[in-house]
Amino acid sequence: MIFLTTRDDPGLAAEVFRTGASGYLLKNSGASELLQAIQEVFQGRSYVTPLAARGMLDTLLRALEPSKKLSPRRREVLQLLAEGTR
Questions:
Q1: Please, which residues have CB within 8 angstroms of residue 49's CB and are 6 or more apart in sequence?
Q2: Are 2 and 47 contacting, i.e. CB atoms less than 8 angstroms apart?
Q3: Model pTM greater than 0.85?
Q4: How many degrees, rounded to 5, is the angle at CA 42 between CA 41 and CA 46?
Q5: How far is 69 from 44, CA to CA, in rounded Å?
Q6: What span, in angstroms and rounded, lies between the C-alpha atoms of 54 and 38?
Q7: Burial degree of 32 (CB within 10 A; 0-12, 13-18, 19+)
C-alpha cells in the first residue's frame, strides 16, 4: 500500500509505516515519482518521497534516546534515505 496525502507530516508518515504501508507520497509529487514509488513497492522495497524524508529523519533522530546513539554507518544510511539516494 502506498499512502498518498497532502500532509507533509513526519508523525503521520511514521504511523503509516507502522500500520503496514510500504510507501508515503505527497499528492503534489509528479507522475514520474508516483511511478517510481509503485515500482519500488512492487519490488518489495519501501518508498518515501524526498519531500517528506528529511522531516521523518529529523523526527527519528529526536526520538532516539541518548543511550541509543547511531553508529556513523547508520547515520550515513539515514542521511542517504533523507536525500533520496539509493
A1: 24, 25, 26, 29, 33, 37
A2: yes
A3: no
A4: 15
A5: 28
A6: 21
A7: exposed
Of the pLDDT bands very low, low, confident and very high (cuts 50, 70, 90), residue 64 is: low
Domain that holds residue 9: 2-83
Q: How many CA atoms lie within 13 A of 11 on its CB side?
A: 0
**CATH value at residue 35:** 3.40.50.2300
Q: Exposed, middle or buried by CB within 10 Å (0-12, 13-18, 19+), for 41?
A: middle
Q: pLDDT, tens digit, for every residue of 6-63? A: 988 888 888 888 889 999 999 998 999 999 999 999 999 999 888 777 777 777 777 7
